[in-house]
Amino acid sequence: MSENCDVAVVGAGAAGLMAAIFAARGGARVVALDGAKRLGAKIVISGGGRCNVTHDVVHASDFNGSRNAIAKILRTFDVPATIAFFADLGVTLKREETGKLFPTTDKARTVLDALLRAADGVEIRTDYKVIKVERGFVINDDLHARKVVLATGGRSVAKTGSDGSGYSLAKALGHTVTPLFPGLVPLVLPDGHPLTTLSGLSVEAELAVRSRTGKVLHRERGSMLFTHFGLSGPVVLDISRHWIANQPSTLTANLLPGESFDSLDAKLIDSPRSIRQQLPARLWDLLGPKDATREERRRLTRDLLELPLPVVRDRGFDYAEVTAGGVPLSEIDTATMESRLCPGLYLCGEILDVDGRIGGYNFQWAWATGRLAGVHSALY
Asked: N or C: which end of the chain has fewer CB within 10 A?
C-alpha cells in the first residue's frame, strides 16, 4: 500500500532544499528524498568550506545556456532577495573584493544548518535512493505524490551524491538530455611539461580558446594557477567548459594583457627590466631569453602574449564544480519550472542545461530555480 504526499522533492541539495522549503510554505505536505546519509555535502565543501552563497551582481551573461530564459528565471529571485532570504534565516552575508558573498561566519555549515531549520515542516528521508519515478507519480513503488520536483544535481563530485542518476529519471519521464561534460574543472598538461615546474605560482592572465585556424572562440581573464598536473585557478575553471565544448581547439595565455606584439617588442629592446619586474621570477627564468638575439627576443614576445598551453585533458567530473549540459530549458515552462512534457513534474538546479561562472553564480541558479519550482509545485 503506497504512502501519499503532495510534493516529493528528489534530491535535497541546494536547489532541492529551496524547493522543499517553499513548497511547504505554500501549504503542501512535502517529502524530500536524498540518497546520501548526510545532507548538503556539496554545500559544505563549496567555497573552500565557506560556501560562496552568491555574487553581488548576477546577470544571465554569467551563464551558459538560453540567456533569455535564464534572465527571466533570475528576475524571480535576485541577489537582494537571496540576501534577504538568508538574513531572515539568521545568516548574514559579507561581500569580498571579488564580489563573492559569503556567510559572515566563514562556515558553510551555517548555510546548511539554516536551510535545514527552514525545512522543519518537510519530511526529509536520507539514505533513500530513488530508482524510478513513474508517471502518476509513484516513486520506488511505495510513495505516491501529486507533484514531483527533480533536483538531483549533475555528475560533478559524485562522492557528494550527485552521480547523474537524475538524468535517467528525467529521460524516463519524457525529457531529453544534452551531452554532459565537466564545467569549472582544472586542466591537465602533458607529463613533465616545463610549466608544471611552476606549481604553486599564480599569475594574472587572459586565456583564449582558439580554433585550428587560430580564430579566437572565447576569452576569459583572471588568476591562473600553475599546478603539478597542469592548470587551475578561476580563469582556467571559467574557460575550461569552452575548451572542452570546442574540441578540437587550442588554449593560449596572454601573460601581459594590454600589450601588443609591437609595444612589447619595443619594451624588451628599450627596458627589458620593466617587463621582467611584471612577471614572477620563476616564470621569467623559464620563459626568459636564452641569448640576446633578435629571434630569441621575438620568441619571448610571442610566448608572453600567446603562450601555448598544450592541454591534453580535463580532470573529469570528480574535480569539476559543475556539470555542463542537461535537460534543455526549452522543455521547461520557465515561469514555473514545470515540465512541458510531463505535467506535475518540476525541474530545478544543476539537472538543467545551464552552468555558470565561478563565484557563487551556480548557487544563485539553485536558489532561484528551487524557489520557483517549490512555489508552483505547491499549487493545486
From this structure: N
Residue 2's pLDDT band (cuts 50, 70, 90)? low
Domain boundary among 289, 314, 339: 314
pLDDT of 319: 95
CA-wise closest residue to 59 among 356, 335, 352, 351: 356
Q: How far apart are CA 284 and CA 279, in angstroms?
A: 6
DSSP H helical ranges for the chain: 14-25, 41-49, 67-75, 79-88, 108-118, 165-172, 234-245, 261-270, 272-276, 281-287, 294-305, 361-377
Residues 130 and 203 in one domain: no
Residue with cell 610571442: 302
Same domain, 166 and 264: no
- Residue 45, SS3? helix
Whether 271 and 373 map to the same domain: the answer is: no
* Beta strands across the sheet bearing 187-188: 307-308, 250-254, 202-210, 216-226, 230-232, 187-188, 313-314
Grid cell digits, residue 247:
574540441
What's the burial of 34, exposed, middle or buried (CB within 10 Å: 0-12/13-18/19+)? buried
- Which tens digit of pLDDT belongs to each residue from 24-71? 999 999 999 999 999 999 999 999 999 999 999 999 999 999 999 999
**What is the number of domains present in the chain?**
2
Residue 9, domain extent: 3-182+317-377
* Rounded-to-5 percentages of helix, strand, coil across the chain: 35, 25, 40
The verdict on 178 and 266 lying in the same domain is no
